[in-house]
Amino acid sequence: MKKKKLWLAGAAVAIMVNVAATDPGDNLFEIAKNLEIFGTLFKEVNAYYVDEVSPQELMDTGINAMLNALDPYTNYIPEEQIEDYRIMTTGQYGGIGLEVGTRIDPVTKEEKTIAVMPQEGFAAQKAGILIGDQILKVDGVDTRKREDLGNLLKGQAGSTLTLTIKRTGADKPFDVQLKREKITLYNVPYYGLVANEVGLIQLSDFTSNAGKEVSEALAKLKEQGAKKIILDLRGNPGGLLSEAVNVSNVFVDKGKEIVSTKGKVKEWNKRYQALNAPDDTEIPLIVLTSNTSASAAEIVSGVIQDYDRGVLVGQNTYGKGLVQATRSLSYNSKLKVTVAKYYIPSGRCIQAIDYGHRNPDGSVGKIPDSLRREFKTAGNRRVYDGGGLKPDVEVEKANLAPIARSLVAKGLIFDYATEYRQKNPTIAPATKFELTEADYQQFVKWLVGKDYDYTTQVERTVADLEKSAKEEKYYDDIKAQLAGLKDRVSHNKEQDLQKFKAEIKEVLEREIATRYYWAKGSMEATFDDDADIQTALALFKDQARFKKILGQL
Known about the structure:
By secondary structure, this protein is α+β, with helices and mostly antiparallel strands. Helices cover 39% and strands 19% of the residues.
C-alpha cells in the first residue's frame, strides 16, 4: 500500500513538472523547483508520517489551500463533483424536481429530511408531495444514514424510485412511487402582473437559455397588458457571461457593447456586443438589485444603467467583476480559474475587493473610495467603479425583528404553515391572502410552550457594558443604573408577538402561500409588503421623477 502511494505521488509530480516545462511563462525555473519540492515533501509525508494518511485528502487540502490564497472563485472541481458543476451551469439533471432540506426535530432532537419545495410541473409535485413532508426512506434506504440524499434522488430519466413519507396529519407513513425525468431549473421562476400595466420578471440565475426565458416572459407580459417592466435581479449570483449578453440584448439595440474583458493572457481581451434585434428598447424599465446581486446580474444592471435604459432600485450590488473559465485537468477533474476582469459599457469595473493585495493578516479589504474613479453614462450621468453598482434609488434593506428571526430559524413558521395547510384545503389567491386577527391569535396560542427564545442586540450591548464595568471596576458605581436599564430593555416574548405582529404576519402569510401556490405563491404574497417593489411602482407613477433620474428632463 505504501509503495502504491509513493508511486502515485511521484507520477503526480512528473505530470506537474512536465506541464511547467512546456509553459511559456517567465518563471519556469521557479515553477519547476517548487513543484519538485512539493512532490518530494508529499512523498516524505506519505512514507514517514506517524499515522496513515489519504493521499487524495492530503492533496485536496494542499490544492484548496493554494487556491484560497487567490480569490474565492478560483476552485478545483474533482471528478466526483463534476455532475454538480454541470447542473449548476446547464440547469438540467435527471431527478424528481424536489428541493429537500434538513432540520432538527424540536422534540426528539433528531435530524429530519424535509421536502422544502417541489418544482411545479415535475414528478414530485405531480405525485402529490407536499412542502413539509418528511422523507423517511428512499428506495428503502434510511435518509438519516445518508449524507448524499441528493444523489439518491437523482438518476437516469425514466428510472423509478420509492419515497417513504411521513406527513403531518396522516396516521402512518406511506410510500410514493415516482419516475425520474429530465428536470430543467428555470432561470425565470416567476413572471406576472404586479400592478395594473406593470409586469415583473424574476431572474434568479444565468444558466443556458436565460436570455430566451426573459424574452418569452416579456412577450407574454405585454400580451397581458404590461406597459412597464420590473426586472428583479435581487439575490441573483450570476452565471454564464454569454447569457448576461443575451439578457441585456432583450432591452438594448443590436451592436451595442455589453461588456469587455481584460486579462493577463491576450486571448481573454474580448468585447461582447448585442448580436440580435432587441425585443423592446422603449418600454419603461426598472431593475431591482440587492447586495447579493453579483457577476452576470451586475453586468445586466450595469448595461441598463450605463445606457440610461432604465432605473436601478434597491441596494448596492455585491461587486464581483471577475471572469472565470473552466480548464480541464487530469482524471476528469477541472479547474475554474479567474482569467480576467470585466468592464461594462461606461468603462468601469465594478469589482469591489482587491484580492491581489492582501493585508498582513491575509485578509482582504474593499477598494477605498479614494481609489474609485468617476465615469459617465451615455446620458452624461456620473457613476463610479470599484464598489459594485449603486442604485439610482436606494431602498433601505428590511431587517426582521429578533423574535421574527427566531421563529424562522427555529422552524416554527415553517411547521405552522404545514399544519395550516392540512387543516385548510384552500385559501384566497396569494396576492389577496391575509391572516385575520383571529388567525394570528391562533398562531400565538400554538406557540405556547415552544422554544423560540432569543437575545436582542440591545440586550447584548447592555451585557457587554456590564462586563466592561466589572473588568474596569466601575460596576459598583453604576450597579443600580445597569439593573434598571436591563429591566427596561429585557424582552418579553408575549409582548413582542403583539409589538411585531405586522412583520411576523408577513412572513407567516408568505410561508402559508407557498403551501398552496408553490414558488409562485411565495413571490406573489410579498407584493404588498416588498419595499423595493412598492418603491418601483411609486416611481413608475411619478414619470417626471423617472425621466429626471435618467437625465431625460
